[in-house]
Design goal:
The protein is mainly alpha-helical and about 350 residues long. Helices cover about 80% and strands about 0% of the residues. A two-stranded antiparallel sheet has the order 1-2. α5 runs parallel beside α12 (about 250-260). The longest helix has 30 residues, at about 25-55. The radius of gyration is 20 Å and the shape is globular. The relative contact order is 0.22.
Length: about 350
Amino acid sequence: MKFLKYMLIFIPVSFAAKFMGASGTIMFILSCLSIIPLAGLMGEGTEEISFYSGPKIGGFLNGTFGNATELIISFFALKEGLFEVVKSSIAGAVIGNVLLVVGASMLAGGLKFKTQKFNPKVTQVTSSMLLFAVIGLCIPALFTHTVDPALLNTRYEGLSIFVAAVLIIIYALSLLFSFSTHKELYAVSDHSEEGTAKWSLKKAIAVLVAATVLIAIESEFLVGGIESITESLGWSEFFVGIILIPIIGNAAEHSTAIVMARKDKMDVALEIALGSSLQVILFVAPVLIFISLIFTPMSIIFNEFELIALIASVLIANNVSQDAESNWLEGVQLLAVYLIIAASFFII
């Protein structure tokens, strides 16, 4: 993680480039390189806060702020009317967490340990909830792709808002389930590193606030360069949204999952990946739907391939959680599926 601190140099460089009127492509690249270490600082700040709040609250904060970067980027994309980028980034975050992060974690851990075991109860609860959430998120799109448009009345425009409201209510109930009514189920998965906090609570909060503000600024630079980079490099908005933005926004969180797997803490690695995916669908996506009402209302209509990739990913997550153990070959298989999906979006 130390190399991330050296990447902070790209923050003043990006500001200077903006002041000098650099092209959108250059600003996109510089903002990407700036957001990665800022996301790392945000993760480090929440980790320090967990020493004061306890591992359960700390884990919740880590997941929430881990997705904050993507939420901020999507906000500016909504503002610019880049709805396809926003929707594909939602799909990409889920696909990336389930296939890329879990796959890389299983591969990295499996190369060190022959077989890694994890708590199936917690993982199955999360993966089952994830399957429900994806089905709920995909229903408006399935409706559009299968029903004759002539049969749809004007009330269909409010379906996305209704689904978003249901999803965010389920998210609130899932927090009640894990923090109150069934907290003993999650007690076995509370992992905290031994030691003491390196930062004071005030410093941790200050770093968290500063990183959030800087990410907001860099996100505006990034979104402003999307159109330029898609034209200059021939990339589609789908590829930028479903592959690049999730990787950039969650780079630090992804590396944390891999580090945990190398320490034989596959429980933690899976919680980071699957828990983050669940929060994207149940919290981030509905919030973006509500925010879009300020600008131009955005519907939750994914294209056919995004639907297939989403559903396939969560079915894989459910399958992986059944035997309560993993190995390096399972990791390779997940990564192979992710590479195929990425290559397919790249050629669009």
